Amino acid sequence: MKTKIFYVGICLAVLTVIQSSILNYIKIFGIKPNLVAVFVICYSLIRGNMVEGAATGLFAGLLQDMVSGKVIGLYSLIGMFLGLALSSVNRRLYRDNVIVTVFFTIVATLCYETLFAFYVYLKQPFNPVEAILYRILPITAYNSVVSILFHIICSRINVRIENSVKSARKF
Amino acid sequence: MRFLKSKLFLLLVTTLLLLVALGVTSAHVDSLGWFSDIFNTVLFPLQKLLTAAGNGIEETVSFFAETGTLRKENERLRSEVEELKKEIQELNKYRKENDDLKKALNLKDEFKDFEYVGANIIAKDMGNWFNVFTIDAGTADGVEKYNPVITGSGFVGKVISAGRYTSKVISIIDVDSAISARLSKSGYVFTVKGDLSFQGEGLCRMDITDASTDIAVGDEVETSGLNDLFPVPKGILIGSVKEIRRTRDGLGRYAIIQPAVNFRNLDKVIVLKYKSKTQEIME
Predict the structure, then answer these.
(1) Between B15, B126, B129, which is nearest A77 by CB?
(2) Residues B187-224 pLDDT 10s
(3) Residue A171 domain flag
(4) What confidence category does residue B276 fall into, taking pLDDT thresholds of 50, 70 and 90?
(5) Using the 8-state DSSP alphabet, how is residue B275 labeled?
(6) Is the pLDDT of residue A106 over 90?
(7) Does B223 touch chain A (CB under 8 A)?
(8) How confident is the model over B5-40, as pLDDT tens digits?
(9) Any CB–CB contact under 8 A between A31 and chain B?
């Protein structure tokens, strides 16, 4: 339990700092990938535990709300349900397959960004075709590339967590 | 009783709590302001370092890219300096005249009520939809909510929440931003808003409600000083009109504003804060 919280907490804090500072200098076409969301996606997929997925998503969302939220709760709410939805995907069917991770990253990012687009649209209508072509699709592409890297990182974390669980058993 | 211990119940409670937090914070209530302060207070030195590193890298890269044009630019700048020196002399004369006339007419100086707080941008927006950034000045430096934020070249935005050592600033290109502006030339008052379609290029939008408005490309737009929620001094440059377009229904027009501030390379800003009453009396 402690190992889990330690690894996830460190990863999310580091990713939040990176995403809010240095990632702005390597934007492509004015768009940057959403590292925190991709981490939540990959971690929930690999762990496959609904409570864990929801908690990770919630924590990641809270961090995002603290750093750049205009309101508190928007990123957290969406993050929590993102983690919940992805951890409920049956893990035994697609164990540790990069292609599966990339596929689910694409689907989840599309949903995630569309929700934000919808939120913005309610406040101020915009041209939906433009938003899809110049925002949602590029973000999805970046996220899917990043997800390959995160798949590897999350698999390693998963191994460590499982090892620590094994060594904690008394019999 | 079993339902109270189930995971579904926990999920429902968390969702409800988050929705309440959403409602409370979107109604501009400050009671949850401490929350967003936690992370920023703990990790702002790290953010500051990384942003500074990013700035350094960008500057080094652009230095090598620009070496070829530097000599030419140097010559051009030298001749410009000569011209400007002459101009400064002339302007000094005007300034003195202006001061004298202001004194004679008893005009109020717009900037007299404000004090300047310099700040660095330490974190930019996490996502791709909004344009909120964090600066390294907070209530400890006297920054308050709704303080206007500027740079030497123009208007940047306003503070939306002030923590102890850091504050969040919403820029004028954000979709949630709206600021009362006027044309320097004719004095017509409009609202300059952020628009998602132009946000990526760092532009904003200004709806022209009155069909008879005299407006042309290149006109300068400045703050009107008419905002009721947060006081902004009159006459800070916002930008210039880049293009005038018809709305999709063909009935109205809107102008695309090129802000005077370049939001891509922004790294230092100035917060305008009110002088306290006691200080005013002292003076």
Answers:
(1) B15
(2) 888 888 888 888 778 888 888 877 777 888 888 898 88
(3) no
(4) low
(5) P
(6) yes
(7) no
(8) 678 888 888 888 888 888 887 776 666 667 777 777
(9) yes
String of DSSP letters for B184-235: TTT--EEEEEE-HHHHTTT-EEEEE--TT----TT-EEEE-S--SSS---TT
Burial (CB < 10 A; 0-12, 13-18, 19+), residue A16, is buried
Q: What is the residue type of B107?
A: L
Q: How far apart are CA B114 and CA B225, in angstroms?
A: 13
Nearest to B51 among A21, A117, A119 (CB): A21
Domain count for chain A: 1
CB contact (8 A) between residue A68 and residue B26? no
- Structural tokens at position A59: 């924590």
For the domain that residue A32 is a member of, what is the CATH number?
1.10.1760
Predicted ipTM?
0.79
Residue A14 belongs to a domain = yes
Q: What CATH fold (topology level) applies to the domain B33-274?
A: Thrombin, subunit H (2.40.10)
- Which chain A residues touch B132 with a CB distance below 8 Å? 68-70
Who's near A79: CB < 8 A, 6+ residues apart?
A36, A37, A40, A57, A58, A60, A61, A62, A64
Chain A neighbors of B126, CB-CB under 8 A? 16, 19-20, 34, 36, 64, 67-68, 75
Contact residues, chain A, for B25 at CB < 8 Å: 70-73
Q: Which of residues 25-64 of B touch A (CB under 8 A)?
A: 25-26, 32, 35-40, 43, 46-47, 50-51, 53-55, 57-58
Boundaries of domain holding A114: 2-166
For chain A, what percent of residues have pLDDT higher than 90? 15
pLDDT range class, residue A88, cuts 50, 70, 90: confident
Quick one: pLDDT at residue A37?
92
Is A25–B57 a contact, with Cβ atoms under 8 angstroms apart?
yes
